[in-house]
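Quick one from the shared queue. A colleague (R.T.) flagged Histidine-type phosphatase as missing a structural entry in our internal table.

Convert sequence to structure tokens.
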Amino acid sequence: MNVRSAGAAALASVALLGSGTAQAAAGGANEGLKLERVVMMMRHGVRPPTKPVATPKGTTAQPWSAWNTPYGELTPHGAEGARLMGAYYRTFLSARGLLPGAGCAASGDVVAKASSKQRAIKTAEMFVEGLQPGCGVKVERPDSEETDTIFHPSEGIDGEVALQAALRQKPGLAAEYRRRAADFAVLQRVLGCDPATKAGCDLAGKPSHLQANKNDTPELEGALSVASTGGQTVLLEYLEGKPMNEVGWGRASKADIQAMLRFHVTKFHYEVGAPYVAERYAAPVAEAILDAMSGQQAAKLTMLVGHDTNIAALRGFFRAHFTAADYPQDDPPPGGAMGFERVKAKDGKRYVRAFYTAQTMGQLRALQPLTASNPPSFSYFEIPGCRTAAEATLCPLETFQKIVGGKLKALARR
């Protein structure tokens, strides 16, 4: 179910049935289901590139556009985008009976955790400020990346084994060049392919390779990596609301951006897509999700705010696929989140449903207020091996526990 209208359905249900109605929910599949818990694994919001020169010298005909925010940090525009999402989810979750529509939730009902990076911390702070304005919800975060055991795990991954696992990923790097030929053509045009100087013209002819990292995920290097960074940088210019003559030097349309973003998906397919890598890198996040779905004293809403790598690995952990708003399949957009709901049926049985939510590119670029008539994208997706006969996205809680718990126990024994 693609529920761009899910929020509208939920809010309309409440308007008709009364704000205390537990059956108010996103679409007909929710009828009779009471929402009990939600966990959201969110990517930070809009930021500049993480370094002064986004791509190597010679890959663009002109310098990249300038930013007023320090490299890698959340911009004011990105912060407001996160606040707008929080404000929307205050209304959306209160409509579904999870959180109060006015005032502050009870202590412990909302928990927010972020990675050590400023862009993640600030995103979490702005989201919970929109969700619980003036309530002083504190964001938990580690002191540094070295002490971050949830979003930057450094244990359990053998770099060489991870590299070999990545190299076995299909279709293989050589085939990616053939598969992405049209996307390379778009990228090179946007980068300013200049036959006279060759600037930005030969990316499709340059090799790519995977590099092992000790106790970490492998890293994609070469043309495919540059293509991923280039596409992401143009996307960030667009989402930041820069004038279109500064978005890809005035050479990029929204359709061009969508084509270039497929390189981002490719990068993560090889870096964290292999089961050996995905399961180990995503294990701390998966454990937090399992605890929130299963624990007796868990928060009603648990916010985990990190990075696209966390979401890509979590997708690989479940071997699932999602589509967020107007982005390519399996591409985690800035400010979007992979989420999990625990719901209770009238017969007392509990289920888990996975969803993805994100602002559309246009909503985030224009910082549009998010309302029942203009909601962010929201769609449920299937967890492989976890479904009921009647509804592919409705997973019995005990099955979800077996899938996640089984993988975590297997990792602990290795």
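The chain has a mean pLDDT of 91.
The chain has two domains: 6-49+71-154+275-413, 159-271.
Added to the table.
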